Amino acid sequence: LQISGYLNLLANTIDNFTHGLAVAASFLVSRKVGFLTTMAILLHEIPHEVGDFAILLRAGFDRWSAAKMQLSTALGGILGACFAICSQSPKGAGETVAWILPFTSGGFLYIALVNVVPDLLEEKNPWNSLQQVLLLC
User: Fold this and answer.
1) How would you class 122 by CB atoms within 10 Å of its CB: exposed for 0-12, middle for 13-18, buried for 19 or more?
2) Other CB atoms closer than 10 Å to residue 107's CB: what's the count?
3) Which sequence ranges are marked TM in the entry (predicted)?
């Protein structure tokens, strides 16, 4: 098995941990925010997990092992949610949410920009670059 498969599993576990933080902290704000965050993360995760599954297959995992390993990374999300809930301040959920939501949203923005900005810099047509920046904003 290639090391890239194991690195992908580690990255996916950390990613799921931050998703768990975001979901739990969002539910601490309100049910509506919690459900919206959960739906947004699910929409992000479905194609992400399919891609990770393909990475594991290319790294030498068989289908059953890749599926089990992908499922095991979901424990990172559960741990993240537990961490968010257990880190509540005696003063209330507001202090917990005050650092968790900016941390997780900053992580999402960082990942999005790391994927988008290099392509923008290579774009030859300035109009296409401007359109992409406007859509990103």
Assistant:
1) exposed
2) 16
3) none
Which residue in this structure is represented by tokens 């992409």? 132
Contacts of 128 (CB under 8 A, 6+ apart): none
Domain count, the chain: 1
pTM: 0.77
78-89 per-position pLDDT tens digit: 999 999 888 876
What is the residue-averaged pLDDT of the chain?
A: 85
| Cβ atoms < 10 Å from Cβ of 93 | 17
Structural domain span for residue 10 = 1-136
Contact 21, 100 (CB under 8 A): yes
